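Page 47, continued from p. 46.
Same chain as before, 635 aa.
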Amino acid sequence: MRHRQRLSSCLLALAAFFPAAMAETVASVSSNPPVAAAPAAAPWVQAYAYYGEPKYGPGFDHFDYVNPDAPKGGTLNLKNPDRRTSFDKFNPFTTRGNSPAGLVIYVFETLAILSGDEPNTMYGLLAEEMRIAPDKSSITFRLHPKARFSNGDPVLAKDVKYSFDSMAGKYASPTYQSAFEGVTAKVLDARTIRFDLARPSKEMLFTIGTNLYVFSRKWGLKPDGTHKRFDEIVDEQPIGSGPYTIGAVDMGRRIEFVRDPNYWARDLPVRRGFFNFDRVVYRYYRDDTVATEAFKAGEYDIVRVYGARTWNRQHKGPKWDSGQIVKENFETGFGQYLQAYDFNLRRPIFQDRRVREAIILTYDFDTWNNRYKMYTRASSMFNNSEFAAQGLPSEAELKLLEPFRSELPPEVFGPAYVAPGTNGEASKLRANLLKARALLEAAGWKLAPDGKLRNAKGEAFEFEYMTPQEGSTATDWQQNLAKLGITMKVRQVDFALYSRRLENYDYDMVAIVEGRFTLPDANQLETLYGSKAADEKGNNNFRGVKSPAVDALIKAMQNAKTKDELIAASRALDRVVMWSAWQVPDLYFSKLPTSYWNKFGRPEVEPKYYSIDSALDLQPAWPITTWWIRDPAKR
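Result:
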């Protein structure tokens, strides 16, 4: 199944929500009797993991990364956390218009939630228990008897069915339609619902459990008992089951969420210690500079910073020096896929590996990064994780690689790839450029009298880097390439044209961010590197890779039955991709740069997988859901 991904303003960000197929175990069986209509020979469980035992067994009290006795009260003030500068609807699941931030964090809930301190393990929330067919062809949920919507109605299986039909239907966002493709839902009784999969898939089990937001079937109900079309539910406030309801609204500018003191799940282990603020207020700013000044003035309390220049130059001053504002780089355990400048191998100019290696040598990451001292050079497909290749190939890796030895670079069978660097030293950059010149000459490119690098046909070495980002930082790189006689043109295009050209693979080079992961997702990697995807316009094989070795290694990841098997297949794939020089590796960043006003209490333990304020992450938005105001009386 092809999954089309959303494009960011300057990069294509590919979300890495779910891991590759692996063996899994589940938590202990509860004492509740099975539902007769559910698949046989499967236990009812309160948690489901991809491998190993869930960290928290039945009867656990709370997640380690919360304070179960955190005080309630006060107001949390936030800004718009993404590119949305206003909002005009309350339905976040349709395409038309913009919904406010915070809805899927505070108002809507899912059948299960992901833990923040273990890789891809989901725990029941609206679902008291779940039952997975041995062949992964279905998942059944038994709803918690206490689950209630904000209007007091119980959450029933028919509400879940209505939510699923709405989100999988043609009037929902294509993101959700695609996510639930091939799934059907059947109500078994008032509190039990089963989802059947056309193609058995562990990834889909997690998608259903953690991506299906449940709302009341009364949302959008007309006086005659029929429902509005889903995309026509616009300004009606949602009837969700979450800990907050919508309070005061200044449409497009400000929205307030009010904590429900009678929230149905407040004492459940998966919710104890969460949602400690009485009110959460989002203010919308149209300009980043204005927003930064508003933060300094105390208009909002926490901000995740994305730009290195902003972090280093604007997030400092007397209020930081005095401790009124705290500046902190929160460390996360997410693995980081590649962020790189991808060569389009469909272009003849990039088909010689020596040429690609030469261009990689001209990219002086270290000198650029020394200005900010914020990022780490990427040398792997699986940065910041145990899935990155290390040292020499293991016996298990060699077993996977040997059948393809004749087609692979010999370096694949040696030490793991390390991206070439300069340490910011001019002498090392000169050495890299001399090495690049030798590679280009060996590939048939010679420096002509006019200073241009030309091949035997007299064609100049020119290529275009396409970006939707304003103010490209590629100037230094262009100068390094020019020293070798290569012309790199930077073409900045509007986002619509950028998207269209990406879909048609119409570019020489583009910068791509492939996202992050807790466990590698082989299905996602298949869309990025699989041979089939290379020929399908609109897919994500931006490089144009067509390699039997890559296809076989991705298949090995998909078929892995243990974590060790997944590690071996991932590391072998890493060696092939990196030593094949299909991209200029750029950077990764495992930290979350954040400034916040020094008014919060926070749990002693940080989770491993979390965000600061994003509604797009399935892992917890840790500060805004588990911190508390130290002195609520002041807010």
